[in-house]
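Backbone-to-sequence.
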């Protein structure tokens, strides 16, 4: 059995706005369209009345590629959001973690880690490179719009 190598996206950013504002903005599935450079559609609200919380599901479609689904697995307001790809992707072992820490000046220290792998050679490396660039380029807009 061939072992599939994991790739990692790691982005750190300093937002001027407080963690509560940045968390609320990035928790909304629809706001992630710009962050991922994808079409995003909410498929299911989260459990226990938390619209974007654990159990919420979004569908993403990037360009002409087939759509896939992500499910939120951990939701700690305003500190952490964790999600996994749960349907329809050539990526395996995908785990996304957004962490929001208060800065000493009232802003937010944001860390975004994504682990991904694919049994198809080269796919994970291409996705890692593209996602890193797209996420980094979107964060100024997030700070403005949050």
């Amino acid at each position: 059995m061939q072992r599939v190598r994991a790739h990692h996206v790691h982005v750190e950013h300093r937002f001027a706005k407080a963690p509560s504002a940045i968390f609320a903005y990035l928790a909304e599935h629809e706001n992630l369209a710009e962050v991922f450079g994808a079409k995003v559609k909410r498929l299911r609200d989260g459990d226990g009345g938390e619209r974007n919380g654990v159990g919420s599901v979004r569908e993403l479609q990037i360009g002409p590629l087939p759509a896939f689904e992500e499910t939120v697995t951990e939701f700690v307001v305003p500190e952490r959001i964790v999600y996994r790809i749960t349907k329809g992707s050539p990526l395996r072992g995908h785990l996304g973690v957004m962490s929001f820490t208060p800065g000493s000046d009232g802003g937010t220290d944001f860390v975004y880690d994504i682990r991904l792998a694919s049994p198809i050679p080269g796919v994970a490396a291409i996705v890692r490179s593209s996602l890193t660039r797209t996420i980094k380029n979107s964060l100024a807009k997030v700070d403005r719009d949050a």
